[in-house]
Amino acid sequence: MKVMLLENDWGPKNIRAAERPEPEPGPHDVVIAMEAVSINPRDLIMSKGGYGRMGGTLPLVLLCDGAGRIAATGDEVRHLKPGDLVCPTYSRTWLFGTASASTHKGAHGGPLDGTLQEKMLVPADAVVKAPAHMSAEQAATLPCAAVTAWNALVEQGGIKAGDTVLLQGTGGVSLFALQIARMQGAGTIITSSSDAKLERARDMGADHTINYRDVPDWHKQALEHTGGKGVDHVVEVGGSGTLEKSIAAVRQSGTISVIGVLSGNAGELNLGRIVTRNVRLQGVTVGSREMLENMVRAMELHRIEPTIDEQRFEFEDVGRALMSLPEGRHFGKIVGLVG
Fold first, then answer.
1. What is the pTM of this model?
2. Residue 40 in contact with residue 172, Cβ under 8 Å?
3. What ranges do the domains of the chain cover?
């Protein structure tokens, strides 16, 4: 079978097509015939060796997001059958609860081989059935970005009807967070440098939009939208370049979920305001199998459809797709087809 393998040296330019033997399931395993994958900033960092020892060693099959149909099951597997559309979980060692020391040891796409392969051998307890109304392309966006947003807002964030959530940008996590916030009855404010993207976010139900190029002090406008109170929750994907303004925008005793560091991971931080205003600063990294299952049930109930960018990449063109991520031209998730 064909796989896309990062070998010889780190860097997305070193991802090459390779052949591996067809996998055979053990008693408690399944084989997934992968149909679609999607990419995340994590994958670009991983391809560059940016996670150090946590990312594993070469050769490595990248990507943790994907979906496909069960091709074979082990003798002891009862809850899955050939033909089921499924997603492998982010980590095969994170089945429930919050993150632990072992969480990332089982992560797909580094340190373990990921979804960029025609057939993927996975323990059956690290597989979740896709929402019944979704296609493989849609389901391929769920295990990483969607679960991260769900974990931030629902599992750890505990948002409720009437809350206001501030979202940064229009990438995969932020748009999933927009959909999840609306599903929970929360109001939303979203920022972007593109008026066209903000218009699309309004079409998706965003209550307020802010172009941060036109309004550099966007935190002040967020305060205005909340009558000076501040937002209840911030989904922070910018990092050091935006965190101070997120702190200024959040209400007393509000929460900031730190998910990404797109504008940098180092910088000075005014800890005094966090302490005196009782702000909860929560780091969020993906989620467990149980969280994915909870989210799938909610998405089925509300018929949520992931936002997928118009561009697609071919199986063997994943390196170019990863290198295009920092350009920020996409809206939602970038999906590729396996085969």
1. 0.96
2. yes
3. 2-144+306-337, 157-283
Listed in sequence order, the residues at least 6 apart from 97 whose beta carbon sits closer than 8 Å to its beta carbon are: 288, 290
Pick the CATH number of 157-283 from 2.40.170.20, 2.30.180.10, 3.40.50.720, 3.40.30.10: 3.40.50.720
- The β-bridge partners of 314 are 337
DSSP 146: I
Q: How far, in Å, CA of 107 to CA of 2, rounded?
A: 21
> Is 266's pLDDT higher than 90?
no
Q: Provide the Cα torsion 132, 137, 143, 144; round to 10°.
A: -150
Give the contacts of 297 (CB within 8 A, at least 6 positions apart).
none
| Distance separating alpha carbons of residues 37 and 41, to the nearest angstrom | 14
At 40, is the secondary structure helix, strand, or coil?
coil
pLDDT tens digits, one per residue of 199-251: 999 999 999 999 999 999 999 999 999 999 999 999 999 887 899 999 999 99
Q: Is 295 helix (H, G, I), strand (E, B) or coil?
A: helix
Cβ-based neighbours of 169, under 8 Å, separated by 6 or more? 190, 191, 192, 237, 238, 262, 328
Please, which residues bridge with residue 191 across strands? 168, 210
Would you state the structure tokens that stand for residue 322, as one six-digit string? 């990863």
> Domain 2-144+306-337 belongs to what architecture?
Alpha-Beta Complex (3.90)
| pLDDT digits 0-9 by tens, 74-83 | 999 999 999 9
